[in-house]
Amino acid sequence: MGRPRKRFGQHWLRDQKILQKIVEAATIEKCDRVLEIGPGQGILTKSLVSLSDTVIAVEIDRDLCRTLNIQFEKDARFHLIQGDILDLDLDNLLSNQPDVHPPDIQHPNIQHPNIQHPNKVVANIPYYITGPLLEKLLGRIRQPNPRPFDSIVLLLQKEVADRLYAPPGTKTFGALSVRVQYLADCELICPVPAKSFKPPPKVESAVVRLRPRPFPMQAQNPKLLEQLVKVGFSQKRKMLRNNLKGLINRDQITDHLEAMALNPQARAEDLSVPSWVTLSNRVSEMMK
Ligand code: SAH
């Protein structure tokens, strides 16, 4: 086995207890179709294949794909796609036909209409693609993933994980928190120390579970909400009304915040996700 490749964010999980927590958090049943991103040497893949009849693994590293194919040879539950997860159009590649165990997928540009679309994601992801990957899996406020996954269990950088489940009014609650929490329920499963990997990454990690769902209170103008969140958090020390003044008159924001029983001097991080939606809906009404 070759040396881990830094540029692909390769850190092999070596902790069986963490592995078990990841798998338990995903509550996998035989009928689930699991998407694994970055199977690497297959430690997680082995557990996934033992629990589910369909595991679709996407791995960018050709050498690893070769060893994975040998390791899981003749296992009809395992389907390997060699490629960059961010470039793949899974909708196009897979379809909703019953699974008839086609050969392994070596060329992402060839369609595989016989594998059903995955309904769960379980992955120890390369940290350098965290942001774009979250967007790929969840979509964005203005365009949620039209095929939401039932659950997404990810091992990621602790600093990013903290932002995903941060409650409002805390330092870690930022634009990413609002964007992700609007699209999914987020929870911490467990922290993961660097020593659980070989080689250990420079940062601490954590396992989180995301459950996509429509937010109970929908934004009338999701594009506007997305814009308000982006601009509202642009300078974290500033009051919200000052950050937003290029978009909306300061006095109007003050009126909205007061009408919502919020402090007009509030900062972006003080508003809960429902408050963001309310603010956006009020502004949207005003613009009509
Ligand atoms: N799941 C394994 C490996 C995790 S390391 C384990 O837990 O031990 C991250 C893995 O993601 C590596 O195998 C790396 O080659 C792969 N990878 C990196 N960038 C990728 C990308 N853009 N698309 C798919 N896989 C990627």
Compose a concise summary of this entry:
With 288 residues, the chain is an alpha/beta fold. It has helices at residues 16-25, 43-51, 62-71, 90-93, 130-138, 158-165, 175-183, 222-232, 240-243, 250-259, 273-287, and strands at 12-13, 33-37, 54-59, 78-82, 120-124, 139-140, 143-144, 151-157, 184-192, 197-198, 205-212.
Any chance you could write out the topology, listing elements then pairs?
Blueprint: E1 12-13, H1 16-25, E2 33-37, H2 43-51, E3 54-59, H3 62-71, E4 78-82, H4 90-93, E5 120-124, H5 130-138, E6 139-140, E7 143-144, E8 151-157, H6 158-165, H7 175-183, E9 184-192, E10 197-198, E11 205-212, H8 222-232, H9 240-243, H10 250-259, H11 273-287
Parallel strand pairs: 2-3, 2-5, 3-4, 5-8
Antiparallel strand pairs: 1-10, 6-7, 8-11, 9-11
Helix pairs in contact: 8-11
Residues 8-13, 37-41, 43-44, 58-61, 64, 84-86, 124, 126, 129 line the site of S-adenosyl-L-homocysteine (SAH).
